[in-house]
């Protein structure tokens, strides 16, 4: 098989088709090479294992800089938005009781707004990000107990 030479024009054209058609995935094959573009995708929750909380000090990040106990972490790289639109009330606040599936915040990735549902019912103990913050994959977003 020959070395793949990426044709930027083809990739930009395919990305434009994704936007125009509201598709989430497109695949192109030529000369034995395949290019697959995917946007959005399924939101997957990554949750730290549950552990008993003895005091509020246990909510803070561990000394090793790891993920706080009961933290909801980001399933993708993007931008965090705490409300549906500017000026709207936040989806949740510290002290709120949330239900499994309730929207906690929105993660924007590649111009797609992805609601982040709560993986469990509980009380919001900490919100670890601010509106408009850039977010990395696996970054702790909030603590729910």
Task: Provide an overview of this structure.
The protein is mostly beta strands and 145 residues long. It folds into two domains: 8-38, no CATH class; 46-144, OB fold (Dihydrolipoamide Acetyltransferase, E2P) (Beta Barrel), CATH 2.40.50. 10% of the residues lie in helices and 34% in strands. The protein contains one helix and eleven strands; from the N terminus they run αβββββββββββ. The chain has one helix spanning 8-21, and strands spanning 25-30, 33-38, 46-47, 71-73, 78-81, 97-98, 103-109, 112-117, 122-127, 134-135, 140-144. It has a five-stranded antiparallel sheet, with no helix packed on it. Strands 8-7-5-10 form a four-stranded antiparallel sheet, with no helix packed on it. Strands 1-2 form a two-stranded antiparallel sheet. A hairpin with a 2-residue loop joins strand 1 and strand 2. The protein is elongated and about 55 Å long. The N and C termini lie far apart (53 Å).
Secondary-structure topology with pairs:
Blueprint: H1 8-21, E1 25-30, E2 33-38, E3 46-47, E4 71-73, E5 78-81, E6 97-98, E7 103-109, E8 112-117, E9 122-127, E10 134-135, E11 140-144
Antiparallel strand pairs: 1-2, 3-4, 4-11, 5-7, 5-10, 6-9, 7-8, 9-11
Pathway: Lipid metabolism; fatty acid biosynthesis
Keywords: Biotin, Fatty acid biosynthesis, Fatty acid metabolism, Lipid biosynthesis, Lipid metabolism
Function: This protein is a component of the acetyl coenzyme A carboxylase complex; first, biotin carboxylase catalyzes the carboxylation of the carrier protein and then the transcarboxylase transfers the carboxyl group to form malonyl-CoA.
């Amino acid at each position: 098989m020959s070395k793949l030479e990426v044709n930027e024009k083809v990739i930009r054209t395919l990305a434009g088709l994704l936007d125009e058609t509201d598709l989430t995935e497109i695949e192109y094959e030529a000369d034995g090479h395949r290019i697959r573009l995917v946007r959005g995708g399924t939101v997957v929750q990554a949750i730290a294992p549950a552990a008993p909380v003895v005091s509020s000090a246990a909510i803070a990040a561990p000394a090793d800089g790891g993920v706080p106990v009961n933290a909801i972490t980001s399933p993708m790289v993007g931008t965090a938005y705490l409300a549906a639109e500017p000026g709207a009330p936040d989806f949740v606040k510290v002290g709120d009781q949330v239900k499994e599936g309730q929207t906690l915040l929105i993660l924007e990735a590649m111009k797609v707004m992805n609601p982040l549902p709560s993986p469990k019912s509980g009380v919001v103990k900490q919100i670890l990000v601010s509106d408009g913050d850039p977010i990395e994959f696996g970054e702790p977003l909030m603590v729910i107990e």
